[in-house]
Structure formats: structure tokens, C-alpha cells
Specification:
By secondary structure, this protein is mainly α. It folds into three domains: 3-113, Fumarase C, Chain B, domain 1 (Orthogonal Bundle), CATH 1.10.275; 118-151 and 160-365, Fumarase C, Chain A, domain 2 (Up-down Bundle), CATH 1.20.200.10; 371-464, Fumarase/aspartase (C-terminal domain) (Ribonucleotide Reductase Protein R1, domain 1, Orthogonal Bundle), CATH 1.10.40. Helices cover 63% and strands 5% of the residues. It has helices at 3-6, 23-29, 32-35, 39-55, 61-80, 92-104, 106-110, 117-153, 173-198, 217-224, 233-238, 241-268, 295-318, 333-355, 361-370, 375-384, 389-406, 415-419, 429-433, 435-441, 450-464; strands at residues 158-163, 166-172, 200-201, 228-229, 275-276, 358-359. The strands form three sheets. The protein has a two-stranded antiparallel ribbon. The chain has a two-stranded parallel ribbon with strand order 3-4. Strands 5-6 form a two-stranded antiparallel sheet. A hairpin with a 2-residue loop joins β1 (158-163) and β2. α8 (117-153) packs antiparallel against α9 and α12 (241-268) runs antiparallel to α13 (295-318). The longest helix has 37 residues, at 117-153. The structure holds arginine. Arginine binds at residues 31, 35, 91, 117-118, 121, 327, 329-330.
Length: 465
């Protein structure tokens, strides 16, 4: 086949076809306009393959030199925007190979020895995704650091802790933020873990059955930094479980982002007024002059649906595919690309936004006071005075009911009033009924006492350093 024949995709594979592909089918089956994003990984994979072919004596040293030279030129062309991507050449792989052959002749045609686009594309996607997973790991670290900073500044700031979105017990705002740090830390762990399974080399599986050439797959794996070689050629070319696993981890990450977004939105609303987000993360309204809307967290909450959608798309794409490679798998790319883009943008913007939160401690404390957040503390106090917990719970329920009727907090009842519920109550109860006393009392590992929060801040800082 001559190099100008390779330019015409309708004839690219063989003389078997007696009519050219229809324009509609060409457009329908082509992937170059999205998979050209894989160009760097494609060239990297091709170079590693060619280097091995040469080491195994399957191509000459001259061919290897020509391939390197050609690939260097192609790299420059793509980087400068001069490279001409052709729909007729279907995908990134055929575009680069055709250009290589145009530039270096027969050496370019020898590159595909012992290789198929099936193991080539599986290798490219893994290589590309590995780099993205590493970047996402770094961005997750940045977001955690930003949250840890705000948490440290707010180790003492009192926030009403909620269950059922009803005031439950006071917590430190720092403690609340560190809950998200825990979530994002697990998300980062998931990335590290899935990277191990992602980082295995399919190349050498060829079309599906392996190849008759004496390839050195371990050598290619070492060159490309893969930890292992896929041990079954059918599996190597066909499974996209690594992409599904990544998208699943991405979905969980976005679910955590979405939960945080929901809280930021609530906290910024006038009814809460616990925080303010910097103006640069908000927008106004074209009709209501007073409005400042938390668009960024709202959009992030919305984009969570999009990423979860990609997970559904990929997992459904895989379902029912017989071994080995099927063209269905070409559909893995757009969801994967969009998931990566969405994740990276969202993580960057959240790290910046977290650093720019204005905390309004008085509003938080006022809200905590309104909700009888220290009722459990009074029950615990009575338990320490010898009452069984269930009885203490009942006594305090009566006290809260009366306080609500009087429109006061428990701490605003007089000692005499409190003693009417139980004579064991003494003057020291007022420390127990204070928000700060309640906070300080929860001084067990993982609890909200400010010194526990500070200890966690120190642990996270050491971990994230
Ligand atoms: N563009 C294809 C993909 O993304 C490359 C592999 C095509 N292989 C084939 N035999 N048609 O999956």
C-alpha cells in the first residue's frame, strides 16, 4: 500500500472493499475530533514500541532513527497547530501513522509490526488517564490544604451541628470542615488505589490473540512506566474497567463536592447567613439588584449529575460486550475526557473558593443558641449525678418544653427553675449549658472539642506535606 493510499481511508485497510465508505458513515465512525487529545500518549506508546522492535531486531537501527525523527517533527507540528487532522483517517492513531509514513517512508510502515489499534488505543487511554489521575491527586491535596487552613482558623468557632437539618449539638466550624477533608482524603486514596490497576500495559496483546513476533512486553512496560503487563491478550484489548473505576471514584468525589456545595449554598442564604463567599465566585441578577447568588457551588452540584451520568454511560457501554475488542469501546473517550475536565476545574475552583470564605461566627452561635443545642449536655450532667440516662432524657425533655413556652434558652432558666426538674442540679450546670462548655466536653478522639480539632489539623498537615 502506498502512502497516498493511506490518506484515503476507504482504501486504508485492504483491497477487499469494492466501494468507498459513505460520508455519513465516515463521520459516524470517526473519532479523530475527540481522540486527537490522546496524541501525546499515542506518540509515547509508539516510540516505546519501536524502540523495543529495534532492540529485538525486528526493525533496523535506521528505521528506529527515522521513526524518532518523524515523531519529533509530528510533535512539533501538533504543538504549533500546523498538523492537519483528517476525518478520512478516522482516529488519532491512523492520522499520526499516516503522517509518519509521509515523512519517513517505509520505516513508518514498519511501526505497526506486532501491534493493532486495539492494543494501541487501550495503551493510549491508560497512559493518558494515568497522568490525569496524578494531576487530580495533586488538586485534591490542594483542596484539602485550603480546607485545613480554614478549619484551623475556626477550631473554636461554634456552629450548630445538625441532624435532619434540625439543630442537634454545637460543633466547631473547623470540625465540620474537617469532615470534608476526611472525605476528600478517601477520594485521593481511591485515586491512588485505582492507579495500580490502571497502570498495566495492554500493548503486545495485538488485535486480540497476541502476536507471532518475539516482542519484549516487559521492556515496553518499563519504558512507559507501567507497573505490570496485562497477562491476557483478550482482556488487555477489551476491558475498560479501569475507566469505569476511575469514573466511579470521580462520581464519589463529586458527590462529596455536591454535599459541600449544598451546605455553602444554605450557609450563604439570608436565613442562615453563616458565611459569605467572595464576590468573584458569585453572580448577580439581571432583575433583582440586591442579589448575590452562589453560582459556583450550585453549578458544581449540577455537574455532579453529569459525572454520575458518565459513570452510568461507561458501565452500560461495557455490559454485554463479548470478547474481545468491539467498536463500542470507542465511546469510552468522551465521557472520560469530560469527567477529567469537570473534576479538575471543580477541584481548582473549590480550593480557591474555600480559601476565600468569610465566616460569621456570631450568626452561627446565635443559631446554635436558638436550637437547645446543649440539651444532651444537661442529660449527661444528670447522668453524672446518678440518674439513669433514659430518666435524664425525660427530665430534660420537660425542661426544653417549658423553656420553649417561655421563649428562653435552657441556660437562661434560673437555678431554682432548673432544680424543679431535679434537685441534684447545682450552680455548675451553667457551664455545662453553655455552647462552649458543650464543645469542650467532647474531647474524645474524633470529637469536636477545639483541642481535638487542632490535633486533627496537625495530623492532616503532616499527611499533606
Ligand atoms: N478509534 C478506535 C477506538 O477508539 C481505535 C481502535 C479501532 N480498532 C479497530 N479495529 N477498529 O477504539
Amino acid at each position: 500500500m502506498s502512502s497516498n493510499q493511506l490518506d484515503k481511508k476507504s482504501q486504508a485497510w485492504s483491497a477487499l472493499f469494492s466501494e468507498p465508505m459513505s460520508e455519513l458513515v465516515k463521520r459516524y465512525t470517526a473519532s479523530v475530533f475527540f481522540d486527537k487529545r490522546l496524541w501525546k500518549a499515542d506518540i509515547q506508546g509508539s516510540l516505546a514500541h519501536a524502540e523495543m522492535l529495534q532492540a529485538q531486531g525486528l526493525i533496523s537501527a535506521d528505521d528506529w532513527a527515522a521513526i524518532q525523527k518523524g515523531m519529533a517533527q509530528i510533535t512539533a507540528e501538533i504543538e504549533s497547530g500546523a498538523f492537519e487532522w483528517k476525518l478520512d483517517l478516522e482516529d488519532v492513531h491512523l492520522n499520526i501513522e499516516a503522517r509518519l509514513t509521509q515523512l519517513v517512508g517505509d520505516a513508518g510502515k514498519r511501526l505497526h509490526t506486532g501491534r493493532s489499534r486495539n492494543d494501541q488505543v487501550a495503551t493510549d487511554v491508560r497512559l493518558w488517564l494515568r497522568g490525569e489521575v496524578d494531576e487530580i491527586g495533586v488538586l485534591l491535596g490542594e483542596l484539602q490544604k485550603a480546607l485545613v487552613d480554614v478549619a484551623e482558623q475556626n477550631a473554636d468557632t461554634i456552629l450548630p451541628g445538625f441532624t435532619h437539618l434540625q439543630v442537634a449539638q454545637p460543633v466547631a466550624f473547623g470540625h465540620h470542615l474537617l469532615a470534608y477533608v476526611e472525605m476528600f482524603a478517601r477520594d485521593a486514596e481511591r485515586m491512588v488505589d485505582l492507579r495500580k490497576r490502571l497502570n498495566r500495559l495492554p500493548l503486545g496483546s495485538a488485535a486480540l490473540a497476541g502476536t507471532s513476533y518475539p516482542l519484549d512486553r516487559e521492556r515496553v512496560a518499563r519504558t512507559l512506566g507501567f507497573e505490570a503487563v496485562c497477562q491476557n491478550s483478550l482482556d488487555g484489548v477489551s476491558d475498560r474497567d479501569f475507566a469505569i473505576e476511575f469514573t466511579a471514584a470521580a462520581s464519589l468525589l463529586m458527590v462529596h463536592i455536591s454535599r459541600l456545595s449544598e451546605e455553602l449554598i444554605l450557609w450563604m442564604s439570608q436565613s442562615f447567613a453563616f458565611i459569605d463567599l467572595a464576590d468573584r465566585f458569585c453572580t448577580g441578577s439581571s432583575i433583582m439588584p440586591q442579589k448575590k447568588n452562589p453560582d459556583v457551588p450550585e453549578l458544581a452540584r449540577g455537574k455532579t449529575g453529569r459525572v454520575v451520568g458518565h459513570l452510568m454511560g461507561l458501565i452500560t457501554l461495557m455490559k454485554g460486550q463479548p470478547l474481545a475488542y468491539n467498536k463500542d469501546n470507542q465511546e469510552d473517550k468522551e465521557p472520560l475526557f469530560d469527567t477529567v475536565d469537570t473534576l479538575k476545574d471543580t477541584l481548582r475552583i473549590f480550593a480557591e473558593m474555600a480559601a476565600g470564605i468569610t465566616v460569621k461566627p456570631e450568626a452561627m452561635e446565635r443559631a446554635a443558641k436558638k436550637g437547645y443545642a446543649t440539651a444532651t449536655d444537661l442529660a449527661d450532667y444528670l447522668v453524672k449525678k446518678g440518674l439513669p440516662f433514659r430518666d435524664a432524657h425525660e427530665v430534660v425533655a420537660h425542661a426544653v418544653k417549658d423553656a420553649i413556652a417561655l421563649g428562653v434558652d435552657l441556660s437562661e432558666l434560673s437555678l431554682t427553675q432548673l432544680q424543679a426538674y431535679n434537685p441534684a442540679i447545682e450552680q455548675d450546670v451553667f457551664e455545662v449549658l453553655s455552647l462552649r462548655g458543650s464543645l469542650n466536653a467532647r474531647n474524645t478522639l474524633g470529637g469536636t472539642a477545639p483541642n481535638q480539632v487542632r490535633a486533627q489539623v496537625a495530623r492532616h498537615r503532616a499527611r499533606l506535606a
